[in-house]
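Protocol step 6 of 9: fold each sequence in the batch and record its structure tokens directly after the sequence line. For illustration, a two-sequence batch is reproduced in full.

Sequence one:
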Amino acid sequence: MKINGFTLVEMMITIAVAAILLTVGVPSLTSFYQQVRAEQNIKQIQSLLAYARNQATSYQRSITICPKSNSTSSTCGNDWHEGMVVYATMGLSGTGGTGSSPTQKTLRQLSKFDDGDSINFKYTSITFSSEGQISSFGEDEDSADMVYCPDNKVSLAKGITIYASGSNQLTETSLNCTTPKN
């Protein structure tokens, strides 16, 4: 009578091969996940920039993008990693008129980015004028780089060069995950 199944030796060999494959495969999957996450998040930021510029030109008013003060707030802070908020400065009546106390109307938000990831940008906000140009850069600056670093790995970093004209371009060269580059 023949019984089907694995012998102890066959099972040990199968487990050893599986362990070797996992040892080689898991780090590659982690790196792949970080790369995809960086690409997805930098494209979300690029889309947010396009949205803000479009709103500025369409409604002829200044539109600002700033980092959120924390992941649940819609007020501006200093850490781009906490997420981003797009707002328009409105007049007292909320119609864009000239009120004595203007208010900010939140138009769109990006939620907090993954823990361990960082976003490096030398400015605390990006303001598009009604012509679609950046009005928040220094006078002599033509562009600024925003760099997204998954787990602070330069090899996987993605960036956006934001031009004073209001346009932007994705970049992967000469990126720095420790300090803003300009």
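Sequence two, same batch, same settings:
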Amino acid sequence: MAARLNEALASARKKLVFASAGGRTHDLRRMTSADRMLAAAGNLSAVLAGFHCGGDVTHVYNPLTYARRPHEVYLRRFGTARKRILFLGMNPGPWGMAQTGVPFGEIAAVRDWMGISEPVDPPEQEHPKRKIEGFACKKSEVSGRRLWGLFAQKFGTADAFFKEHFVLNYCPLVFMEASGRNRTPDKLSAAEQTLLERACDECLAVAISALEPEWLIGVGGYAEAALQRVASASGTRAKIGKILHPSPASPVANRDWAGTATRQLKEQGVWPGS
């Protein structure tokens, strides 16, 4: 798998400089930020198409492929200009981005607050306990509800929030065990994590270059480490920070997560206030 991934990465690097669209070749460095991120996401999907996990992981979902339409709308609607702050999550949750194609994509937040509701085609090999229903899914992702709920409370409208902010996930893949249990990237084997990082680091570097943020904020420690690694390699001058991940699996996050995250952002100087 490592050899195939290296070959795919080499091909993707060429495409990240010059991309073909409609029979014409475009220099990505002259494209809009949204187009650059879309091209990078497409290349990442191609690179990770052959990514397989050992152990108990039986299914791997990539919402960048089957939920491509809402993901593209998200990038084109809100990712078209330079951003002051980029928030980065780890990977999709089963009831969020896995259903909607939008990072931390709790359905009500994406549909009602962002105004995005596009068709989602289930992957060919579905986990029987983790069906993809798209915007018809009745379950709600707590992490996404907390994250977007905070932003909606503070900024009011999605347009007001996205004027200076953007949210992405580091890894686009969802890993599931036979039981349906979600396995996060940090729980993969060391060899699998290394292969995953090679591909995802390059996509993140494109996003940072496209958005030119002043702040890179990891939503949790894993995302912060990815930002530090990519920022060091790319030479960006952006400052790096972190907020508590809103996962309900964290007892600390279950005690006023919004208040904690707001305080952390203010203390780091990301948001104004004391």
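Proceed to step 7 once all outputs are recorded. Observation for sequence two: The chain has one domain: 55-267.
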